[in-house]
Amino acid sequence: MRNEMMYRPIINEDILHYLRTEQKQLTGKLGELEELAHENGVPVIPHETVVFLQFLLKQKQPKNVLEIGTAIGFSASLMAESIGKEAKITTIDRFPVMIEKAKANFEKLGLQDQVTLLEGDAADLLRTLEGPYDFIFMDSAKSKYIAFLPECLRLLADNGVLMVDDIFQAGTVLKGIEEIPRKNRAIHRHLNEFLEEVTKSPELTSTLLPLGDGVALISKNN
């Protein structure tokens, strides 16, 4: 379960430690879930991204949220806690082990009625959704971001925000392809295609943030 990207900071390690330990910590069952994930090396969003996501959602107050990449259900649970019971969250995952863990966590946190978990490949399921979604959080296979982007933009409300996690490949995304291990080269190419599209497209407004392994915020120009 260990994700090497979680242990290769892209900013100064002292600052990273401060961001992860000195900002307000989660409490209750959600805090326990975050702590358990970190203890077991489960790849959930790091705490600096947790705090940012909480702040963003409390300002945005979306009513209809889509998540691509459920994992153990931590991010979906965090979003549910941040935006209140009147909002609905749809989350997608295709890995049976993760789906089982996520369902158990949603039940433990009392979120079964607020969070809908769709089981299957996002490439297939996204086409079946209608939206619009006020907020979309994509935290799935990085090599698929560029492929999922058109459907995410179709489903995104005109004033909505698409947030994409893990975009810097542990700080190596701008290196030459020859410097990247062969097993990671497909991810490297597709992430660069994704970054080129979201930063250069005249139809989009975006900002990139050095949180965790990098976060992109994207909106549509109306």
TrEMBL record:
Keyword Transferase (UniProt): yes
Annotated residues for binding of S-adenosyl-L-methionine: I45, S75, D93, D121, A122, D139
UniProt xrefs under SUPFAM superfamilies: S-adenosyl-L-methionine-dependent methyltransferases
Catalytic activity, EC: 2.1.1.-
Keyword Transmembrane helix: no
Catalytic activity: 5-hydroxyuridine(34) in tRNA + S-adenosyl-L-methionine = 5-methoxyuridine(34) in tRNA + S-adenosyl-L-homocysteine + H(+)
UniProt entry keywords in alphabetical sequence: Methyltransferase, S-adenosyl-L-methionine, Transferase, tRNA processing
Entry function: Catalyzes the methylation of 5-hydroxyuridine (ho5U) to form 5-methoxyuridine (mo5U) at position 34 in tRNAs.
Subunit field text: Homodimer.
Family in the record: Belongs to the class I-like SAM-binding methyltransferase superfamily. Cation-dependent O-methyltransferase family.
Protein's name in the database: tRNA 5-hydroxyuridine methyltransferase
Biological source species: Enterococcus viikkiensis
